[in-house]
Amino acid sequence: MQNSKWFKIGICILLVSLNILVLSKISFVFLPLLAALKTVLTPLIVGGVLYYLTKPLVVFLEAKKFPRTAAILTVFCLILVLILLLILYLVPVLKTQFAALAENLPKLVSSLQTRFAEFRESNLFSRVENLEIIQNLQGVDLTAVLDTLIGAISGNALSVVGSVFNVIVVIFTAPIFLFYLLKDREKIFNGMLNLMPVRSKSKATELLKAIDQTLSAYLSGLLTVAFLIALLAYIGYRIFGIEYALLLAVIAGVTEIIPYVGPILGTIPGMLLGLTYSPLVALEVLIMMVVIQQIESRVITPVVFGKKLNLHPLVILSLLLVAGALSGVVGMILAVPLFAALKTTLTYVVKWRKEAGTQKK
Q1: Neighbours of 68 (CB within 10 A)
Q2: Alpha-carbon gap, residue 215 to 336, rounded angstroms
């Protein structure tokens, strides 16, 4: 019985469960270690993302006979110029629109309440007012919700200060990580290979290169898609004459980073603002964003990504739910590329096992 397959599986499950139970009881021991890892991992992850975005340009410059350090410093200068252009031309417009939106927010909330009141008095609402969700919404005071939100933000001022400090740390340390990732990428690659047994180095080389290509394709493609969505949204908002067009377009582009959920989040602000004009404008905004998403899914994504990831939507949604519960928005953003790397690893492991089985025969 002890040699049976199910007995061994049961023992493994029991041991894993016991380890999880023990670790859960002494988790406080690992809190300092986790805090230290979080401090290091955040700039490392940011540097890693920037590495995949900038490496093609560094490789291109090296092919043009640039020394590696000179190529990296050239890319850094280009990034700095891009940041300065954004600060000079884009940030002032965003700042002005955000300030105007904050100033007009009470008026916009009042307008939304008026629209909801008109909707409650319409024939359409009378047909669905018996639904429980509608009855619950009738008692919602948007002004009170806004006041509660502002109070919560004010009450967490210390947390905001801590977050600002973390952002400052990342701003100063991520470029250092990026510089050495670009400069010593072969050394880092070879160092990872040296951790492998000698007989597995050729397979490990193949696997690491495949993971590198997968992450590079995903991250660069994601940035391209987000930029194009923001551009299309900006054009659409300007066509419909919506105020704060640039701010809404930036929101649409940033939220596009989160698969499936992001486009919905990016549409809501535009629809709410459109509703302050009229229900028809809100509907126009919704149709516009649906059209943009159709262009993205049928034209942009196939061209940019091709079928490199080939992940089923249900898999992605499940990943987002789990990652969001564990690590919030950051987890949702990182879930897909990390899972893509894991899938690449498993694909190669299965391939090698099949090859080993064929050789034995």
Answers
A1: 16
A2: 10
